[in-house]
Write a structure and sequence with these properties.
Protein name: WGR domain protein
Strand content: over 45%
Oligomer: single chain
Distance between the termini: 20 Å
Largest sheet: 5 strands, antiparallel
Pfam family, one: WGR
InterPro entries: WGR_dom_sf, WGR_domain, YehF/YfeS-like_WGR
Helix content: 10-25%
Structural class: alpha+beta
Number of helices: 1
Shape: globular
Organism: Falsiruegeria litorea R37
Order of helices and strands: EEEEHE
Radius of gyration: 14 Å
């Protein structure tokens, strides 16, 4: 599961992104990965939170998504790469 959020504010010259994803590790744990930074650059931050169950990871993802949308981010459909 992956969600991409973007915030563009032309007045403040802001263009930022946030990618939240839930995946399973090789050891059966679930992790929530959060990548944030300015669009168009390689600068950014990545953090990983490990959870015991998928439900916990999805609940944390939903909470983070709600926080970001309250602060002005909008969800963007994730495009799959072409073969």
């Amino acid at each position: 599961m992956q969600i991409r959020l973007e915030k563009i504010n032309h007045v403040k010259r802001q263009s930022r992104y946030c990618v939240l994803s839930v995946s399973e590790t090789l050891f059966g744990e679930w992790c929530l990965t959060k990548e944030t930074g300015p669009m168009g650059t390689t600068a950014g931050q990545k953090s990983i939170l490990y959870m015991r169950t998928r439900e916990d990871a999805v609940a944390a993802l939903t909470t983070m998504k709600d926080d970001k949308t309250r602060s002005g981010y909008a969800p963007i459909p994730v495009q799959l790469p072409l073969l």
